[in-house]
Amino acid sequence: MAIKYTDIHKFHKVVIVYNRNSGKQFFASMFARINEVYRLLKQELGTRKVDFVAIERFNELEGVVDYIVEEKADWVIIAGGDGTIRAGIEKIYKRGHRPYISVFPAGTVNLVAKELNMSIEPYRWFYRVLRGVVCPVYMGYANGNSFITVAGIGFDSLVVGRVNEKTKKFLNKLAYVLEGGVLIHKEVLFKDWQYKFNVRLDDEEKTYDAASIIVGKSRYYAGRYNLFRGANMSEDFFHVALFTGNTQGHFARYASLIGLEALELDPTIKILQARKIEITCNVGEFPVELDGDAVTATPLVIEMDSTPINFIG
Length: 313
Fold this sequence. Notes:
Elements: E1 4-5, E2 14-19, H1 30-45, E3 50-55, H2 61-70, E4 75-80, H3 82-94, E5 100-105, H4 111-115, H5 122-129, E6 133-137, E7 140-142, E8 145-147, E9 150-153, H6 155-161, H7 165-171, H8 174-187, E10 197-201, E11 207-210, E12 212-216, E13 220-221, E14 225-226, E15 238-243, H9 248-260, E16 269-274, E17 276-281, E18 287-290, E19 293-297, E20 300-304, E21 309-312
Parallel strand pairs: 2-3, 2-4, 4-5
Antiparallel strand pairs: 1-6, 6-21, 7-8, 7-20, 9-12, 9-18, 10-11, 10-17, 12-15, 13-14, 15-16, 17-20, 18-19
Helix pairs in contact: 1-5, 2-3, 6-8
Protein backbone atom coordinates (compact mmCIF):
# COMPACT_ATOMS: atom_id res chain seq x y z
CA MET A 1 0.00 0.00 0.00
CA ALA A 2 1.43 3.37 -1.05
CA ILE A 3 2.15 5.81 1.78
CA LYS A 4 0.00 8.94 1.70
CA TYR A 5 0.90 12.32 3.13
CA THR A 6 -0.87 15.54 4.05
CA ASP A 7 0.59 18.97 4.78
CA ILE A 8 -0.57 19.95 8.28
CA HIS A 9 0.55 23.56 7.62
CA LYS A 10 -2.39 23.96 5.22
CA PHE A 11 -4.97 23.20 7.92
CA HIS A 12 -7.02 26.22 8.97
CA LYS A 13 -8.24 24.79 12.30
CA VAL A 14 -6.76 22.15 14.62
CA VAL A 15 -8.54 21.10 17.84
CA ILE A 16 -6.95 19.17 20.70
CA VAL A 17 -9.51 17.38 22.89
CA TYR A 18 -8.19 16.11 26.23
CA ASN A 19 -10.19 13.85 28.54
CA ARG A 20 -8.77 14.72 31.97
CA ASN A 21 -10.37 11.64 33.49
CA SER A 22 -8.59 9.24 31.14
CA GLY A 23 -5.93 7.02 32.67
CA LYS A 24 -4.05 7.36 35.92
CA GLN A 25 -2.69 10.81 36.64
CA PHE A 26 -0.96 10.48 40.02
CA PHE A 27 2.72 10.14 39.19
CA ALA A 28 3.17 12.15 36.00
CA SER A 29 1.45 15.29 34.84
CA MET A 30 -0.37 14.25 31.68
CA PHE A 31 -1.81 17.75 31.44
CA ALA A 32 1.73 19.16 31.23
CA ARG A 33 2.60 16.75 28.40
CA ILE A 34 -0.47 17.68 26.39
CA ASN A 35 0.02 21.36 27.09
CA GLU A 36 3.53 20.97 25.62
CA VAL A 37 2.03 19.42 22.47
CA TYR A 38 -0.35 22.38 22.32
CA ARG A 39 2.57 24.81 22.62
CA LEU A 40 4.58 23.05 19.90
CA LEU A 41 1.64 23.03 17.49
CA LYS A 42 0.89 26.71 18.08
CA GLN A 43 4.54 27.52 17.51
CA GLU A 44 4.57 25.54 14.26
CA LEU A 45 1.12 26.39 12.83
CA GLY A 46 0.22 29.71 14.45
CA THR A 47 -1.72 30.57 17.58
CA ARG A 48 -5.04 31.19 15.85
CA LYS A 49 -5.06 27.81 14.13
CA VAL A 50 -4.84 25.61 17.24
CA ASP A 51 -7.43 25.25 20.03
CA PHE A 52 -7.26 23.17 23.20
CA VAL A 53 -10.37 21.85 24.97
CA ALA A 54 -10.32 19.77 28.18
CA ILE A 55 -13.30 17.67 29.26
CA GLU A 56 -13.98 15.56 32.36
CA ARG A 57 -17.02 13.53 31.23
CA PHE A 58 -18.09 11.91 27.98
CA ASN A 59 -21.32 13.94 27.89
CA GLU A 60 -19.20 17.08 27.45
CA LEU A 61 -18.10 15.75 24.07
CA GLU A 62 -21.36 16.91 22.50
CA GLY A 63 -20.50 20.57 22.99
CA VAL A 64 -16.94 20.02 21.78
CA VAL A 65 -18.20 18.25 18.66
CA ASP A 66 -20.58 21.16 18.00
CA TYR A 67 -17.54 23.45 17.99
CA ILE A 68 -15.46 21.09 15.80
CA VAL A 69 -18.22 20.85 13.19
CA GLU A 70 -19.01 24.57 13.37
CA GLU A 71 -15.35 25.47 12.81
CA LYS A 72 -14.98 22.78 10.12
CA ALA A 73 -11.82 21.63 11.89
CA ASP A 74 -9.39 19.92 9.52
CA TRP A 75 -7.58 17.95 12.23
CA VAL A 76 -8.80 16.68 15.61
CA ILE A 77 -6.23 15.40 18.12
CA ILE A 78 -7.80 13.23 20.82
CA ALA A 79 -5.79 12.89 24.03
CA GLY A 80 -7.30 10.03 25.99
CA GLY A 81 -7.77 6.27 25.97
CA ASP A 82 -9.41 4.07 23.36
CA GLY A 83 -12.87 4.75 24.81
CA THR A 84 -12.46 8.51 24.41
CA ILE A 85 -11.14 8.08 20.87
CA ARG A 86 -14.03 5.80 19.93
CA ALA A 87 -16.69 8.10 21.40
CA GLY A 88 -15.14 11.25 19.93
CA ILE A 89 -14.85 9.91 16.39
CA GLU A 90 -18.32 8.40 16.51
CA LYS A 91 -19.93 11.69 17.55
CA ILE A 92 -18.00 13.71 14.94
CA TYR A 93 -18.79 11.31 12.10
CA LYS A 94 -22.48 11.14 13.00
CA ARG A 95 -22.54 14.87 12.28
CA GLY A 96 -21.27 14.22 8.75
CA HIS A 97 -17.82 15.73 9.37
CA ARG A 98 -14.69 13.65 8.63
CA PRO A 99 -11.53 15.50 9.72
CA TYR A 100 -8.08 13.98 10.00
CA ILE A 101 -7.60 12.34 13.41
CA SER A 102 -4.56 11.88 15.65
CA VAL A 103 -4.26 10.34 19.10
CA PHE A 104 -2.11 11.15 22.11
CA PRO A 105 -1.95 8.18 24.52
CA ALA A 106 -3.43 9.46 27.79
CA GLY A 107 -5.80 6.68 28.79
CA THR A 108 -6.11 3.47 30.77
CA VAL A 109 -5.88 1.47 27.53
CA ASN A 110 -4.11 2.93 24.47
CA LEU A 111 -4.28 0.22 21.80
CA VAL A 112 -4.91 2.70 18.98
CA ALA A 113 -1.82 4.71 19.92
CA LYS A 114 0.18 1.50 20.30
CA GLU A 115 -0.87 0.29 16.85
CA LEU A 116 0.14 3.64 15.34
CA ASN A 117 3.39 3.80 17.39
CA MET A 118 2.44 7.16 18.91
CA SER A 119 4.78 8.26 21.68
CA ILE A 120 3.74 9.67 25.05
CA GLU A 121 6.72 12.06 24.89
CA PRO A 122 5.56 15.42 23.49
CA TYR A 123 8.58 16.15 21.29
CA ARG A 124 8.69 12.67 19.75
CA TRP A 125 4.92 12.78 19.19
CA PHE A 126 5.12 16.23 17.61
CA TYR A 127 7.94 15.46 15.18
CA ARG A 128 6.17 12.29 14.10
CA VAL A 129 2.90 14.03 13.15
CA LEU A 130 4.87 16.86 11.55
CA ARG A 131 5.71 14.46 8.71
CA GLY A 132 1.99 14.23 7.83
CA VAL A 133 1.93 10.47 7.20
CA VAL A 134 -1.69 9.35 6.72
CA CYS A 135 -2.82 5.90 7.86
CA PRO A 136 -6.31 4.77 6.75
CA VAL A 137 -8.15 2.94 9.56
CA TYR A 138 -11.43 1.08 9.10
CA MET A 139 -13.88 1.19 11.98
CA GLY A 140 -16.19 -1.57 13.07
CA TYR A 141 -19.78 -1.00 14.13
CA ALA A 142 -21.53 -3.12 16.76
CA ASN A 143 -25.29 -2.47 16.85
CA GLY A 144 -24.46 0.93 15.35
CA ASN A 145 -21.77 1.74 17.95
CA SER A 146 -18.26 2.23 16.59
CA PHE A 147 -15.00 0.58 17.68
CA ILE A 148 -11.46 0.75 16.34
CA THR A 149 -9.45 -2.04 17.94
CA VAL A 150 -11.44 -4.78 19.68
CA ALA A 151 -14.89 -6.02 20.68
CA GLY A 152 -15.28 -8.57 23.46
CA ILE A 153 -18.31 -10.72 24.20
CA GLY A 154 -18.04 -13.07 27.15
CA PHE A 155 -15.84 -13.15 30.23
CA ASP A 156 -13.94 -9.93 29.40
CA SER A 157 -17.04 -7.89 28.60
CA LEU A 158 -18.72 -9.04 31.82
CA VAL A 159 -15.66 -7.80 33.74
CA VAL A 160 -15.58 -4.47 31.87
CA GLY A 161 -19.29 -3.96 32.43
CA ARG A 162 -18.83 -4.24 36.21
CA VAL A 163 -15.98 -1.71 36.53
CA ASN A 164 -17.34 1.79 37.16
CA GLU A 165 -15.60 4.96 35.97
CA LYS A 166 -14.47 6.04 39.45
CA THR A 167 -12.77 2.70 40.16
CA LYS A 168 -11.24 2.68 36.69
CA LYS A 169 -9.74 6.12 37.19
CA PHE A 170 -8.13 5.45 40.56
CA LEU A 171 -7.05 1.83 40.08
CA ASN A 172 -6.31 1.90 36.35
CA LYS A 173 -5.82 -1.65 34.94
CA LEU A 174 -5.81 -3.12 38.46
CA ALA A 175 -9.58 -2.49 38.55
CA TYR A 176 -10.06 -5.10 35.81
CA VAL A 177 -7.79 -7.60 37.53
CA LEU A 178 -9.71 -7.29 40.79
CA GLU A 179 -13.11 -7.55 39.12
CA GLY A 180 -11.88 -10.50 37.06
CA GLY A 181 -10.95 -12.33 40.26
CA VAL A 182 -14.41 -11.73 41.71
CA LEU A 183 -16.05 -12.96 38.51
CA ILE A 184 -13.93 -16.13 38.35
CA HIS A 185 -14.97 -16.98 41.93
CA LYS A 186 -18.62 -16.33 41.18
CA GLU A 187 -19.04 -17.73 37.67
CA VAL A 188 -16.30 -20.30 37.00
CA LEU A 189 -14.63 -21.64 40.15
CA PHE A 190 -17.39 -23.99 41.33
CA LYS A 191 -19.40 -24.50 38.14
CA ASP A 192 -19.17 -24.41 34.37
CA TRP A 193 -19.54 -21.08 32.58
CA GLN A 194 -23.28 -20.73 32.02
CA TYR A 195 -23.34 -18.28 29.10
CA LYS A 196 -23.54 -19.60 25.54
CA PHE A 197 -23.21 -17.69 22.29
CA ASN A 198 -24.24 -18.59 18.77
CA VAL A 199 -22.20 -16.95 16.01
CA ARG A 200 -22.91 -16.49 12.29
CA LEU A 201 -20.26 -15.08 9.93
CA ASP A 202 -20.93 -13.24 6.66
CA ASP A 203 -24.54 -14.45 6.41
CA GLU A 204 -23.42 -18.06 5.97
CA GLU A 205 -25.82 -20.87 6.82
CA LYS A 206 -23.30 -22.48 9.19
CA THR A 207 -23.15 -21.19 12.78
CA TYR A 208 -20.66 -21.68 15.63
CA ASP A 209 -21.13 -22.11 19.37
CA ALA A 210 -18.80 -20.28 21.76
CA ALA A 211 -18.38 -19.48 25.45
CA SER A 212 -16.51 -16.20 24.78
CA ILE A 213 -15.59 -14.23 21.68
CA ILE A 214 -12.92 -11.68 20.81
CA VAL A 215 -13.33 -9.68 17.61
CA GLY A 216 -10.12 -7.90 16.66
CA LYS A 217 -9.49 -4.99 14.34
CA SER A 218 -5.88 -4.81 15.47
CA ARG A 219 -3.13 -7.10 16.77
CA TYR A 220 -3.44 -6.20 20.42
CA TYR A 221 -5.80 -7.14 23.21
CA ALA A 222 -5.97 -5.92 26.84
CA GLY A 223 -3.19 -3.42 26.28
CA ARG A 224 -0.26 -5.68 25.47
CA TYR A 225 -1.12 -9.12 24.11
CA ASN A 226 -0.63 -9.77 20.40
CA LEU A 227 -3.50 -12.15 19.66
CA PHE A 228 -3.95 -11.81 15.91
CA ARG A 229 -0.60 -12.00 14.18
CA GLY A 230 -0.42 -9.78 11.10
CA ALA A 231 -3.68 -8.00 11.88
CA ASN A 232 -3.79 -4.37 10.86
CA MET A 233 -6.30 -1.58 11.53
CA SER A 234 -6.10 -0.70 7.83
CA GLU A 235 -7.70 -4.05 6.91
CA ASP A 236 -11.40 -4.03 6.05
CA PHE A 237 -12.21 -7.31 7.81
CA PHE A 238 -12.31 -8.68 11.37
CA HIS A 239 -10.27 -11.41 13.07
CA VAL A 240 -12.59 -13.55 15.20
CA ALA A 241 -11.48 -15.81 18.07
CA LEU A 242 -14.16 -18.22 19.28
CA PHE A 243 -13.41 -19.79 22.69
CA THR A 244 -15.60 -22.90 22.76
CA GLY A 245 -14.68 -24.46 26.15
CA ASN A 246 -16.77 -23.57 29.22
CA THR A 247 -15.04 -25.25 32.18
CA GLN A 248 -12.65 -23.89 34.79
CA GLY A 249 -9.82 -25.79 33.05
CA HIS A 250 -10.65 -24.20 29.70
CA PHE A 251 -10.67 -20.69 31.17
CA ALA A 252 -7.34 -21.21 32.94
CA ARG A 253 -5.80 -22.49 29.70
CA TYR A 254 -7.25 -19.61 27.67
CA ALA A 255 -5.79 -17.05 30.08
CA SER A 256 -2.38 -18.70 29.76
CA LEU A 257 -2.54 -18.79 25.95
CA ILE A 258 -3.54 -15.13 25.79
CA GLY A 259 -0.51 -14.34 27.95
CA LEU A 260 1.69 -16.48 25.70
CA GLU A 261 0.12 -14.96 22.57
CA ALA A 262 -0.48 -18.47 21.25
CA LEU A 263 -4.23 -19.02 20.75
CA GLU A 264 -3.55 -21.20 17.72
CA LEU A 265 -2.14 -23.96 19.98
CA ASP A 266 -5.56 -24.86 21.40
CA PRO A 267 -7.98 -26.78 19.14
CA THR A 268 -10.95 -25.50 21.19
CA ILE A 269 -10.21 -21.97 19.98
CA LYS A 270 -11.35 -21.22 16.43
CA ILE A 271 -9.70 -18.25 14.68
CA LEU A 272 -11.64 -17.01 11.66
CA GLN A 273 -12.06 -13.90 9.50
CA ALA A 274 -15.25 -12.09 8.51
CA ARG A 275 -16.72 -8.73 7.53
CA LYS A 276 -20.07 -9.30 9.26
CA ILE A 277 -20.71 -11.12 12.55
CA GLU A 278 -24.07 -11.92 14.17
CA ILE A 279 -24.13 -13.10 17.80
CA THR A 280 -26.96 -14.21 20.07
CA CYS A 281 -26.76 -15.29 23.72
CA ASN A 282 -28.79 -17.75 25.79
CA VAL A 283 -29.60 -15.00 28.34
CA GLY A 284 -30.63 -12.24 25.96
CA GLU A 285 -28.93 -8.94 26.74
CA PHE A 286 -25.32 -9.85 27.56
CA PRO A 287 -22.89 -6.87 27.82
CA VAL A 288 -20.52 -6.18 24.94
CA GLU A 289 -17.31 -4.19 25.35
CA LEU A 290 -15.95 -1.99 22.58
CA ASP A 291 -12.43 -0.56 22.90
CA GLY A 292 -12.47 -1.10 26.66
CA ASP A 293 -15.96 0.19 27.48
CA ALA A 294 -19.24 -1.71 27.93
CA VAL A 295 -21.31 -0.02 25.23
CA THR A 296 -23.99 -2.35 23.90
CA ALA A 297 -25.44 -5.85 24.42
CA THR A 298 -26.54 -8.99 22.60
CA PRO A 299 -28.20 -9.76 20.26
CA LEU A 300 -25.35 -8.25 18.29
CA VAL A 301 -24.54 -7.40 14.68
CA ILE A 302 -20.96 -6.33 13.94
CA GLU A 303 -20.15 -4.84 10.53
CA MET A 304 -17.26 -3.01 8.87
CA ASP A 305 -17.42 0.63 7.81
CA SER A 306 -16.94 1.09 4.07
CA THR A 307 -14.92 4.33 4.37
CA PRO A 308 -11.70 4.54 6.42
CA ILE A 309 -10.71 7.22 8.93
CA ASN A 310 -7.60 9.16 7.96
CA PHE A 311 -5.24 9.08 10.94
CA ILE A 312 -2.11 11.24 11.02
CA GLY A 313 0.67 9.48 12.83
